[in-house]
């Protein structure tokens, strides 16, 4: 099916605006690069120029950043096992996503950055890699890319698709353009019925939208992670341990203030602190130093000592290991209006979690875990400290709530098998 004249006109206007905005995109890369030097690397890939050769007849998966890469991990593992003779191409947009992909899969998959959504760059990308199937994780809709995939008759599956109410409202001014892009999609595999309904409102046809569940429920707990955490805890001594994970600016002061209140009741308590973005590692270390708390970091010191009060995890890809070593978790991006982050990792490990009021990015998962008591909401630094102390002072309740979360997540597994069935159908149709 070809584009209508109206669809071509819309996409032409979009491409014109994208070209006009290109200098601002480059300024953004420079601005980010001044804070995280990895943004200066591999600029040629942003325009689909690659130093290495192409791939013939590959399966291509796009995961924009760390969260999407982690969500894709069980799917990539299953694809490698089921289709060992088909090459896998992984694209990301951010350096942190790239680092996570390389940490998970190394040289067993090809990884590059997804180019900007410019017609020439998109064509060059697809001519270089020749995918037989495109798997796009969660909420990435690119009009020129989708149109070119449609022209080449390459099926698209939006896997683990999610669309918050806020994102739906944000797309509404561009609804006609988005609707014409979604025509190219073979299947939208939605995380929940609510996500499926919002995709239908956005313009996905009813036949192409299915509720398959959330792939994140199917992630494996790494072998030996609990035993490793127990060994760490023995080294740290008998004391309460809580973790502040994926925090953002505006939450850092609340983390330190809450920890000071915890220390007033438990002077030996340990805070494990993992900021969301690498450019905030130094800010977390500085915040601990300003509070005059004994501090160590993962890069400099490897692990906390018995006298450490704050331990900053200034590395990527290790968050789950430290979740396993904590009694209680606070998952950030939720006190500030970011939308929250993934609660499944602490829940799968039986670690109860606290979140702020802003969890719209993971509304269904949060509601599910709040319902069984595995997650509790807080509103500010004082209520965060009070909620921490309630669980730290009551091991029996803490254990009961953590186990409730672990059990609920186990019941939700199955999205991986349903998504693989959709992929198998597409691959058979292409053979």
Secondary structure topology:
Layout (H helix, E strand, L loop, with lengths): L4 H31 L22 E5 L3 H17 L5 E5 L2 H11 L4 E4 L5 H11 L1 E7 L5 H9 L4 E6 L3 H7 L3 H8 L4 E4 L2 H10 L6 E3 L13 H12 L4 E7 L4 H14 L4 E6 L5 H10 L4 E3 H4 L8 E3 L6 H5 L4 E4 L12 H5 L4 E3 L7 H9 L3 E3 L3 H12 L2 H18 L2 H16 L1
CATH class of the largest domain: Alpha Beta
Query: Would you tell me which CATH topology of the largest domain applies?
Result: Rossmann fold
Give the CATH architecture of the largest domain: 3-Layer(aba) Sandwich
Mean pLDDT rating: 93
Count of all domains = 2
β-strand percent reads 5-15%
Residues in helices, as a percent range: 40-55%
- In total, the number of strands is 14
Q: End-to-end span in angstroms?
A: 20 Å
């Amino acid at each position: 099916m070809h584009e209508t004249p109206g669809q071509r006109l819309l996409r032409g206007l979009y491409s014109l605006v994208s070209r006009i905005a290109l200098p601002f995109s480059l300024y953004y890369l420079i601005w980010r690069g001044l804070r995280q030097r990895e943004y200066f690397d591999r600029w040629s890939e942003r325009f689909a120029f690659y130093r290495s050769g192409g791939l013939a007849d590959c399966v291509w998966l796009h995961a924009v950043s760390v969260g999407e890469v982690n969500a894709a991990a069980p799917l990539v593992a299953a694809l490698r096992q089921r289709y060992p003779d088909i090459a896998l191409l992984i694209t990301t947009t951010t350096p942190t996503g790239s680092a996570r992909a390389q940490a998970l899969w190394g040289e067993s998959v090809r990884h590059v950055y997804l180019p900007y959504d410019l017609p020439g760059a998109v064509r060059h990308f697809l001519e270089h890699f020749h995918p037989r199937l495109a798997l796009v994780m969660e909420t990435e809709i690119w009009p020129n890319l989708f149109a070119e995939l449609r022209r080449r008759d390459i099926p698209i599956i939006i896997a683990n698709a999610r669309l918050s109410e806020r994102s739906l409202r944000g797309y509404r001014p561009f609804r006609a353009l988005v609707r014409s892009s979604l025509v190219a999609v073979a299947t939208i595999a939605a995380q929940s019925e609510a996500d499926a309904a919002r995709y239908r409102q956005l313009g996905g046809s009813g036949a192409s939208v299915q509720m398959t569940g959330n792939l994140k429920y199917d992630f494996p707990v790494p072998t030996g992670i609990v035993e490793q955490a127990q060994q760490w805890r023995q080294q740290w001594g008998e004391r309460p341990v809580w973790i502040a994970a994926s925090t953002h600016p505006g939450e850092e002061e609340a983390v330190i203030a809450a920890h000071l209140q915890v220390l007033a009741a438990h002077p030996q308590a340990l805070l494990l602190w993992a900021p969301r973005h690498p450019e905030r590692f130094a800010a977390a270390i500085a915040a601990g130093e300003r509070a005059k708390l004994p501090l160590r970091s993962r890069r400099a010191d490897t692990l906390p000592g018995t006298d450490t009060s704050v331990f900053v995890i200034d590395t990527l890809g290790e968050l789950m290991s430290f979740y396993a070593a904590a009694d209680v978790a606070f998952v950030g991006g939720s006190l500030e209006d970011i939308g929250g982050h993934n609660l499944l990792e602490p829940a799968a490990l039986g670690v109860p979690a606290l979140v702020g009021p802003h969890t719209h990015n993971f509304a269904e998962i949060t509601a599910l875990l709040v319902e069984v008591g595995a997650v509790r909401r807080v509103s500010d630094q004082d209520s965060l400290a009070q909620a921490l102390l309630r669980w730290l002072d009551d091991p029996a309740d803490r254990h009961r709530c953590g186990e409730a979360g672990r059990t609920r997540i186990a019941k939700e597994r199955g999205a991986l098998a349903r998504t693989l069935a959709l992929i198998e159908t597409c691959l058979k149709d292409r053979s």
